[in-house]
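User: I'm new to structure prediction. If I give you an amino acid sequence, what do you actually give back? Let's try with this one:
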Amino acid sequence: MLTRMQIRLALLFTAAIPALALAQTFSGRVTSAFYAFERSDSTDLTSTHGRGYQAFQFDYGTENIVFHTFGQLDNDFSTRLAGDGKVRMYNFHLELKNIFKRTDIKLGRQPVFAGVAVGTVDGAQIKVRAAKWLRLKGFGGGSLPADQRFKLADDFSKNYMAGGQAILAPNADWNISLSYFNKRQQRESYFAQRADSIGNVFTLFVEPSNRAFEFASLDASWNVKRTSFYGRSDYDMLGDQFTRAEFSVRSEVTSNVVLNGSYTFRSPRLPWNSIFSAFDVENNQEVEGGIYYRLNRAWRFYGNAAGIFYSGDESLRLTVGSECNYGGLNYVRRSGYAGDLNGVNASVYYPLRQGQILPSAQFSWASYKLDANASARQDLFAGAAGLLVRPWNVLTIDSQLQYLHNRFYSNDVRFLVRLQYWFFAKTGAL
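Assistant: Good question. You get back a string of structure tokens that encode the predicted 3D arrangement of the chain. For your 430 residues, that looks like this:
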């Protein structure tokens, strides 16, 4: 008997027959990477890892019918981890474009970006250009397994995400969006050891309650001359409360000076039936402002400050720095509820042979206290040296040596190397 995945593949490839028959282009990217590092599993136990990653992305079809895939394999060559060797598929869908010059349809595993709704589904998505000033989007499908394996959810009624978005654009300077999504997520049951009132240990079968989310959002943007405004609000329909409200403004005062400011209200976004909803959850508000100044074509300077306000406490975030054509330098300051930190970050790079060779270096230092009342400060140093080589336009080899020193790692050295190959080919009809 055919499995649901086999049926799904058969239907998808049947729908792709027109694309296969009229295919004109085949493009993609293949990325191979190796990362070696040591991990501190506890204060007295460490483990070494040499992880390999193989990512692939392929697009095959015509101008209006395209089949997309994007996935990854990974494995640890020294210490096996849970999930090693499995294929993770992030994209696997057929896209039908410009149907009746108004509609785009996607079928299969696909990412969704629709205002408040962000995620990946095994299902369908449709976009309609209903008018010059109105665009509509609707989507629905099963939720992905936590490890993105190439399988469908066991029960779509308990594992799904569905919703939509309407975008109104009366003119080029106005944009208003209303979005909504409804998501359900089944949590796996498990066995756990528990103790009764007199200390006897027994095995308990735990069935966590399923997660539920239902949100709506309204956001709008407005551009007038050299100033742009943006506003957004998110509403939790199951919790019956606003979870986010945001307003920001950006103004180009002169050709060299840009000012920006924003206000954000946040309330932790929790599942409707989460155990954490039984506790008092504190909201926070953030006020931020900044300036960007371009001295000339080579040098830019910037500064940004923000205050985050909690119930009975507050935190300050400050960043000042400069950028040039070949690097940058900045100073960061954090204080208050989030701890106390002073840090410096620097980077430098210089292209050689018309960009075919790019050496780079990064440096970070910080002195911090996790609690503002702590008596002693801790120091952290991190650095990296990298080399990117592009012998041909289709091939890039990128390597980096990383170093970290803090109270837990006296000398932590890591190595990353990555090879990327791009290709594009025109093909005829099959």
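You can read the tokens as a compact description of the fold. Here is one thing that stands out. The first strand starts at residue 25 and ends at 40.
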